[in-house]
Amino acid sequence: MALFTPLFSGFIAAAIGTIPPGLLNMSAAQINSKEGKKNALWFVIGAIVVIFFQVSVAVLFARVIDNRPDIVTLLREIGFVAFSILTIYFLFIAKKPTGKKKSKIKKSSKKSRFFLGMLLSGLNLFPIPYYVVVSITLASYQLFVFENSVIFTFVLGTVLGSFAILYCYIAFFGKIEQKTNYLMRNMNKIIGSITGLVALVTLFNILNYYFG
Question: What is the pLDDT along the chain (212 residues), one digit of tens a residue?
Fold first, then answer.
């Protein structure tokens, strides 16, 4: 398999997972606006270090369960329930975000921002199940194989993709801030729609497994 495919797949997967406004990209943008680009970049580097290990663990876990269709199906069933609950929560229960700006961030050193990036990235457990699903899905379409060189290239692609999107938040946040505030005000509907779509696709895969 050409290494460009897993590199590109990892980049795209990371971009999709990082583009929606969240804790890491919004924190990076705010640190840039309050403390400058250098501190923001140190924050991003800290976050990227943790993302590297998270994706590595996720893909290695996916390699273990890839040859166990029963486990894959069980994970899909659990995922369907989880995404369905999230859809109901975000569309009908969760309060609407205000989109207000956060309080001013205290001036800090590059070292502290590096470790803050690691901390916030470590608290975000979403990448692990996300990349488990992504790698197994790519493997099912013969776009990914669980070989060491391919795994490393895929992880490298996710690191580059995550860095690219986080850097865009740093570089262009001032220009997209109004659009970002709009997204934040409507984030519940956006997330609910996404999780609903994922739940439907997951349900289709489950039904196809049992009745296909």
Answer: 578 899 999 999 998 888 877 778 888 988 988 888 899 999 999 999 999 999 999 999 889 887 777 777 776 787 778 778 878 877 888 666 554 444 444 556 778 899 999 998 988 778 888 898 888 878 877 889 999 999 999 999 999 999 999 999 898 876 655 555 565 566 667 667 877 887 788 788 778 878 86
Rounded Cα distance, 78 and 63, in Å: 19
